[in-house]
Amino acid sequence: MLTWAAVFVTTILLVLHKPWALHTPQLWAEDGSVFLNDAELYGIRSLFHAYQGYLHLIPRLIVWLTDSLTDVRWWPLCYNGGALLCSVAVLARMTSPRFNVPHKLWLILAFGLVAESGETLLNLTNVQWITAFLLVQQLLMEEPTNGRQLAGDVLLTTAAGLTGPFSVILLPLFAWRTWRGKCRRRWIIFGVIVACAAIQTWFLFTSASVPPTPRPDRFDLLNYLAVLGDRIVIWPYFGAALASSLPSPALAAVGLVIVAAVAALALITRDRRPMGVVVLTVFLLLVAAISWRARPDGWQAHDLANGDRYYFIPRVLFAWLVIWQFDSRWAVTAWTARLLCMLGVLLELPHHAILAPPDYHWAANCDPIRRGVPAKIPTLPQGWNLEYPGRPRRSP
Fold first, then answer.
1. Alpha-carbon distance 212 to 297, whole Å?
2. The pTM of the whole model exceeds 0.90
């Protein structure tokens, strides 16, 4: 019962974080220029179109259903509402008795209380960073005991595995989990992950080339560690003001020390070691993949909004590792973990509600889509436009 209460509270926190995403909904970035346009041009075939080198099954499915069942004026609300439902589904799955981890209530609340710029939550473009948690949960789940549970695992693993590159990134961890387990059902889930990873890899090598991300000429280790320390430790636990003012060497040093300490505690706490190893490994695999893909060593260390989506999952996973120290057998560790999280929450709450962006009046500007004629429609983020190519006329 308490875990369901935590799901309810966290859902409210997510809505309060970006209330305008529901009461004044607008498209966000690739919501329109990629997902909407593809659904308009290709219909259900758009589900199998790659973007950035891989499939985005869940957001494309939401867009296709919305396009098929509702009027154009409601599309932004359906998109953002669909993204919210994906978050609620991830939270609800954590209430399962099979997700048998300590301090589950606080793990759920971490989704709504961890620092976030507003880029990741409640929009379809970045919903892959939410649904990826379905794969993390699968790694921590106890084995299914009946066909219904197994079918649910297969369905959710497939959906998440075909949404973003995470089935490829986490494949080694699923292989390790399957190899060391004795349950035959693990091989079914592993087979699903292998299939999803193979499909995403095939699209990566065969889909249209993606414009390369500007990359620095040389690797700046100090700035890289400063970005990691700022995004994963300083901002979530010591507030945006300190994160925006500390010099890069301090950001790097404090972040490195705290991450190393929490990682060591996860490994030496014997009764928590199996789950600690899983979460820590996911954390490291994602940080490594993000570092290769986005080259954050070229970012400005104090620019917390730039690329914030990349570090939402690592921030939440790191919060889980901290939360698991709440009842450490060493009193100083337990109290330090509790105080860190309490400080982070107290510093986050005054900035929890994200300032509403400009209203581009979607309902007044969307009629060209209803009529199927080409148009240029302003959307979020500020300065982004939906270049709508048009399609055969549809009835109002």
1. 16
2. yes
